[in-house]
Amino acid sequence: MSRRTSRPRGPAAARITPASPCPCGLPAAYGECCGRFHSGSAAAPTCEALMRSRYAAFVVRDAAYLLRTWHPGTRPPGVDFDPATRWTGLDILDATEGSAFHSTGTVTFRAHYTDDGRPDSLHEKSRFVRHEGAWVYTTAVFVD
Fold this sequence. Notes:
Elements: H1 34-39, H2 47-60, H3 63-68, E1 85-97, E2 104-115, E3 118-131, E4 134-142
Antiparallel strand pairs: 1-2, 2-3, 3-4
């Protein structure tokens, strides 16, 4: 997901606790799933795990994590969270490469959201590479 601007704004993040269901859609608590990546206590082992954790970072509005997991060559100066946007679900449609044995990978997904209460979705194919040993987001192609 590649929403980027130079100035943060908006209300507080969604109220997610370590015991809450993880916003990424996997059947685990946030603290055991994406929360451990956000806190820095673990690194995403695959492109898909990184994609899920980046989606969850949009849900909880964790700009520091999004920037930390963005390739320095394509990273914006900041992340802007639109106060009218509420992320409501993630569907992983395809993943290629992106395991411990790869240096690149892609994840195609559909992220569902509401904008001022109107439902919509973002269909994207994200590209990832290993940078200094960790998976990072590089670029995206919007599918529709």
